[in-house]
Amino acid sequence: MFQTFDAKTTPETAAPRMAQLRDVLRENGFDGFLIPRADAHQGEYVVARDMRLAWLTSFTGSAGFCAALLDEACLFVDGRYTIQARDQVDTKLFSIEKFPDVKLGNWLVDALPDGGKVAFDPWLYTKAQIEEIEKHINGRGVELVKSENLIDQIWEDQPQAPLDKMHAHPMEYAGKSHGDKRSEIAQILREAKQSGVVLTQPDSIAWLLNTRGTDLGQTPVALCFAMLFQDGRVALFIAPEKVDDELRDHLGADVTIYDLGDLSAELIRNLGPIRVDPRTTPIAILDILQNGDVKVDFGDDPITLPKAMKNKVEIDGAITAHIRDGVAMCEFLAWLDRYDHSEPLSEIDVVKSLEGFRAATNQLRNISFDTISGAGPNGAIVHYRVNEDTNRTISNGDLLLVDSGAQYLDGTTDITRTIAIGKPKREAIRAFTLVLKGMIGISKLRFPVGLSGREIDAIARAPLWSAGMDFDHGTGHGVGSYLSVHEGPQGISRRSNAPLREGMILSNEPGYYKEGAFGIRIENLIYVKSAPAIRGGDDRDMLCFETLTLAPIDLRLIDRKNLTRDEREWINAYHTRVFETLFDLVSADAQDYLTMACAPI
């Protein structure tokens, strides 16, 4: 099993750890310390060594931060994690605020009316993040000061950093050599008259050099830093234990490998201008450059956009990966459909079964995130992670929300299905149908070139809005190619300003959550492609989406009378495609299930 079910944190540990932290604050003359859920690479996922937020607060969500002061503390989480935070955290010790509704800077000013010094680790914060906080505290008495990491000073059994090997990612999956990629990005630097760019995000470096790793487990990258120069050369900064001769041969003469300890000296060897992404580069690296009199140009990581626009090989790989994953999903759904309540079935049983069907493909490299298996009220916890303490037996009448994904060499998958266990309630059918209508709306959409996810997000929400309902997460996120299951700059949400482009892969996952009762989410992966011309339409470049995910949507949860004719036709066409693609690839039991599950409505 790739997934484990131990309860990684407990609220009872927070009080003594907070007491230790406050002792250190007093010793250093600080009034507070900021603890983000981040590492020096600013990725969503972090290794055990960098789980400082969870260690202090016991909150294990993938987004959040804490402000710990001498006499109070606050955990900030977004709408996905409000229920989870209340369940995991000692609320007598931590207040919980929802961001971005509540700004950290404003909270600090209110909590420190007489002013004070609040420390932060410059390796864990970017220029953009600190400027956003300072915008709300300037002139109001609160000062942010750089510091060594105070959590590291009191975390006695802090895990060691992983030292697994970085390895080559074959051309048959990458579709473009790393030499061609380096030349392509170097041209961007030359046009901007920049001598190089600092690269801090491991997935950018993995894409650029056609490498992968296992440091983050479910995200197949090796933790490292790099600099790309305008002539296409690269300086790679990585722990020497992660490098072997096979990797050196793959990288070639134009990639020079340095120890991580050489980073500071090498950063200031060039006069610049050096490109730095203010949203992803640690302030510590910016300080090294500026203290070394290196000219800095601020700009986006130039790899983010090319990485998001998958080439033909990557799209073909994604299609193949989703057929394989569709087989595993259908075997799983058929297994679940045979459940007759004669034996107890738990959320953990569901996770183990699904991973087993994926492992049976013999091509599973890892899961792409911990499977969310939430029955009944647990399904309303958007990013619920089942453990031995929370594991719930699935009961007749429950809705079961299963959000899962896989990492294959040819692609990354992410799929959510909500399944009725027994006869569903009318309230659940109504909500499910509204969510489905939004998902179909995105799936069928044609839109002009240049639109961003922000401009189409409302299409997924409109059916829910019409009923006075909504959900507190984005409609869709970008997905990598055997890389991170959450990738930018593409997305479908109110915060997604990047124009959608051909080759981008996104999720399409509206939902609805009734606290204490049930959760609903339906998710397919889609990719952006050029839309065919329509006779009689304008001569205007348009884009559309092609659905990658192949698995039945539970017909028992659909109120057919609340679907339009076009929506029914979409469901039937989708299920016909699922049936025809997968039928000959699955077991006899799964064939029987597919025949029933894909019946036209």
TrEMBL record:
Signal peptide: none annotated. Residues 321-529 form the Peptidase M24 domain. InterPro entries: Creatin/AminoP/Spt16_N (IPR029149), Creatinase/aminopeptidase-like (IPR036005), Creatinase_N (IPR000587), Pept_M24 (IPR000994), Pept_M24B (IPR033740), Peptidase_M24_C (IPR032416), X-Pro_aminopeptidase_P (IPR050422). Residues 17-154 form the Creatinase N-terminal domain. Residues 542-601 form the Peptidase M24 C-terminal domain. Keywords: Aminopeptidase, Hydrolase, Manganese, Metal-binding, Protease. GO terms for cellular component: cytoplasm. It holds the Pfam family Peptidase_M24. One of its GO terms (molecular function) is metal ion binding. It comes from the Bacteria. PANTHER family: XAA-PRO AMINOPEPTIDASE 1. Belongs to the peptidase M24B family. This is X-Pro aminopeptidase. It comes from Paramylibacter kogurei.
